[in-house]
TrEMBL record:
Pfam families: Choline_kinase (PF01633). It comes from Microbacterium ureisolvens. Gene3D superfamilies: 3.90.1200.10, Phosphorylase Kinase, domain 1 (3.30.200.20). This is Phosphotransferase family protein. The lineage of its organism: Bacteria, Bacillati, Actinomycetota, Actinomycetes, Micrococcales. It comes from the Bacteria. InterPro entries: Kinase-like_dom_sf.
């Protein structure tokens, strides 16, 4: 739930194009500091242009005189290093690039997490509207399935570890959760017990399927970007967080499950349905925590977080919830 990590023509603010050295704002000067650290561009004429779409990071198109391609610069937002392992996300991006499902990595600065990737000309970020078309969803699922085949990542964070991290933050900084959170978290513990008893199906997962993280262009293959939340995780979670992000109804959910698993058997459906509640708990807590940590950002994290938790409460109130837990 971070950024649109590749640019579209309409997202590039060409009227704000700057030459390296002409930065005026704090954001531009920070971008210039990052660009100067790209050693292969030393002494060359470099231009940079802001790209909209970043929630926590600032994004820029970069043009280097003499290079036939453009580049995309992502400057991590302050504080994001508290919950993102930059080395892990970079390795995930490299391996996805090697598979041909993500743009090529051009430069990575391990010290500050700054990343430069190939700018995908002619591509645009998907929207929720795109995800209503099955052929688009099918491409998303295919990319995720391909990513599941890469070598294990350095970081293993299951959905339970992801949620527990936020629960620790809630206690440490005194985040006030809605009144219904306590019974919801009891069901979370019941889900943990069910998954633990059956065993987790751990594979490398993208974990962040917001539509803007999938790029499309007519006649070209879809590409996946933004691996900041990638980790080795439960396979069912990667699918569940996807259809919760896209607001799918039950027929669409079953179609997704069949596409990924080749079956809609009761045990598999149960596993994924429970994972969808966990997805909403994770991102609901994320929103509530970020409301307190990042009050300066122009985004209503609290509203987002409470809404996600409300949807998780609806899921655990489903008459089939107990049956799903038992079937896992």
């Amino acid at each position: 739930m971070t950024d649109v990590d590749a640019a579209t023509p309409s997202a590039v603010h060409t009227d704000l194009r700057r030459r390296l050295g002409d930065g005026r704002t704090i954001s531009e000067q920070r971008a210039e500091d990052c660009l100067r650290r790209v050693t292969q561009w030393a002494g060359r004429e470099v231009f940079y242009t802001p790209v909209s779409g970043g929630l926590q990071n600032s994004n820029w198109r970069v043009d280097v005189t003499g290079d036939p391609v453009a580049y995309f610069l992502k400057v991590p937002g302050e504080g994001t290093e508290d919950f993102i392992d930059r080395g892990n996300s970079h390795l995930a991006a490299v391996r996805a690039g090697e598979l041909g499902i993500s743009p090529r990595i051009v430069h990575f600065d391990a010290e500050n997490g700054v990343e430069v990737i190939e700018f995908l000309e002619g591509y645009r970020a998907c929207t929720n509207g795109d995800m209503k078309r099955w052929e688009v969803t099918e491409s998303v699922l295919a990319l995720q399935n391909a990513f599941h085949t890469i070598a294990p990542l350095p970081v293993t964070k299951t959905i339970f570890e992801l949620i527990d991290e936020h629960l620790t933050q809630v206690k440490e900084i005194g985040v006030r959760l809605p009144s219904f959170a306590e019974p919801l978290l009891r069901e979370y513990e019941a889900a943990r017990a069910a998954y633990t008893a059956s065993g987790l199906d751990i594979v490398p997962c993208h974990n962040d399927p917001m539509p803007g993280n999938f790029l499309v262009s007519p006649g070209k293959p879809m590409r996946m970007v933004d691996f900041e939340f990638a980790s080795n995780n439960e396979r069912a979670y990667d699918l569940a967080v996807t259809f919760t992000e896209y607001f799918y109804d039950e027929p669409a959910i079953l179609r997704c499950i069949d596409a990924v698993y080749g079956t809609t058997s009761w045990d598999i459906v149960s596993r994924v349905q429970v994972a969808s509640a966990l997805a909403d708990i994770k991102w609901g807590l994320w929103g509530c925590v970020n409301h307190q940590l990042n009050a300066s950002w122009d985004y209503d994290f609290h509203k987002y977080g409470v809404w996600k938790l409300l949807r998780a409460r609806t899921k655990v109130a489903d008459p089939r919830w107990g049956q799903w837990l038992h079937a896992i």
